[in-house]
Amino acid sequence: MRTVRNVHERLIDAPAEVVGALLDRISSPDDPLSPSPVWPPIRFDGPLGVGADGGHGFVRYSIGAYDPGRSIRFDFGPPGNGFHALATEPLDGGRCRVSHVLEQQQGLKAWLLWTLAIRPMHDTMIEELIDNIERAASPAGLPRPYRWTRWARLMHSLVSDRPTATSVPPEAELAHQAFAAPDFADAYTLRLRPGMPRDPQAWRKVLPFPVLATAPGELLLGEDGGHLDFRASIMAADDKVTLTTVVKFHNWRGRLYFAVVRHLHPLMARRMLRRTHRRLAFAAPPAADRTPSPRDPSPARMDETGAQ
Fold first, then answer.
1. Is the pLDDT of residue 306 over 50?
2. For the chain, how big is the Rg over CA atoms in Å?
3. Distance between terminal CA atoms of the chain?
4. DSSP E strand boundaries for 37-133
């Protein structure tokens, strides 16, 4: 076993009480710090307080210590060990120091996994969280956002959300109305993280086909052919995006063609939905720019946030 200690620190041009107020909003509906939607949001099963359980994505922990406005310690649960903690320290001149410390005992396998895969993602996520602190608290905002390494981007792509098969949503009216009796239908879905667009028009580039119809919360794309017609419905509702495909055969050529294509279709549908999901996540405004902050609590900003 070896002790891993990972430390991130940054001087913030804002008073410690301003930054502390931001720390107290972690996991709230208007959390300005979680670097979502690129990363899973930090969520707990209740208000911030000792004993609250939660985490982000597959990383699970509970709150082991909490000093409101000053620090939060997150303890990894069994079979893990150790903790990570966020804290702010007041400095002269109306500034403060923000720190994040991770400490854990790791065996050889865990250390190799940490070194090769987890640490590049951990370092990037924490730096982006501190970026959000600086965006929200500093009068000058964030002059230089953290830049991803190629390795971190690769590791992130390997663990990012993957679509799952689902039934055709009952609310997908355009998909249900496309054909009276479709010969094939399937659907795949992905969860929408905070900050991702809910307008299906934003998901238009999932498929390179013309738009045939629109409805509230739904977009219908497709093409007609001599052998078959197909339609693709994109819905963004209830914190998830769903891609539905329906197909109608005209003759034996259509059946023969799709008998081959249907083996590739699930792979391509998942790939296109996942690729668009990642592109929109990276293009979304940071959390600190979507929520009111201590330096800009104006009603206009709150109205803009509500429209996100």
1. no
2. 23
3. 46
4. 43-44, 53-56, 59-67, 71-76, 83-91, 95-106
Burial 234-260 (b: 16+ CB within 10 A, else e): bbbbeeebbbbbbbbbeeeebeeebee
Q: Which residue matches tokens 């083996």? A: 263
Q: In what order do the strands lie in the sheet with 43-44?
A: 2-12, 95-106, 83-91, 71-76, 59-67, 53-56, 43-44
How many Cβ atoms are within 10 Å of 79's Cβ, its own excluded? 5
> Which tokens go with 97?
């120091």
pLDDT digits (tens, 9 = 90+) for 124-146: 999 999 999 999 999 888 989 99
Written as one letter, the residue type at 261 is: V
| Sign of torsion over alpha carbons 204, 206, 209, 215 | negative
**Using omega within 30 degrees of 0 as the cis cutoff, is the peptide bond preceding 182 cis?**
no
Q: Enter the tokens of residue 133.
A: 């602190």
Model's pTM, two decimal places? 0.86
For tokens 């804290």, name the residue: 87
